[in-house]
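Need a sequence for this fold. Nothing fancy.
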């Protein structure tokens, strides 16, 4: 059977992976987890960590393959200083997406943290995809794009 904590561990590990690695690349990023409350302030560089899944498939008795789609939203407040800054941000998000994402047992209260394995990028999809939407709302000086990749992990159930 699927272990009930896998969902929590995968979500927490994905969020921590992106927050930690993106802040190392640029401490000015404002990073949010999908659904997290935001003030109405329009920051210069916003990254929202978003994902779907896992989609579970039992490969053999209690051996599970989980598929995860990570689709991070990038928003950039437009100015005339550097029109390519959104592309720099997308480059950083792509870089972090190219790394394996280790899944740890993050519990509350904390117990010794253990690695369950790594999310690996699927190579039969389009690997890492950028979708640039530009200025979505003409009255708001904001550009948007997404950076998407698909991952898998194998875990052993109960």
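Here you go.
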């Amino acid at each position: 059977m699927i272990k009930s904590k896998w969902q929590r561990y995968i979500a927490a590990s994905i969020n921590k992976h992106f927050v930690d690695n993106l802040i190392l690349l640029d401490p000015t990023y404002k990073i949010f987890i999908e659904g997290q409350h935001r003030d109405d302030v329009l920051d210069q560089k916003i990254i929202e960590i978003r994902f779907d899944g896992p989609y579970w498939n039992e490969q053999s008795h209690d051996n599970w393959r989980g598929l995860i789609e990570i689709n991070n939203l990038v928003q950039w407040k437009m100015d005339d200083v550097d029109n390519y800054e959104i592309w720099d941000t997308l480059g950083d998000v792509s870089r972090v997406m190219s790394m394996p994402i280790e899944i740890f047992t993050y519990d509350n209260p904390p117990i010794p943290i253990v690695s369950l394995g790594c999310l690996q990028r699927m190579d039969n999809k389009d690997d890492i995809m950028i979708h640039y939407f530009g200025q979505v709302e003409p009255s708001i000086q904001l550009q948007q794009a997404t950076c998407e990749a698909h991952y898998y992990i194998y875990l052993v159930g109960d």
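For context: The radius of gyration is 17 Å.
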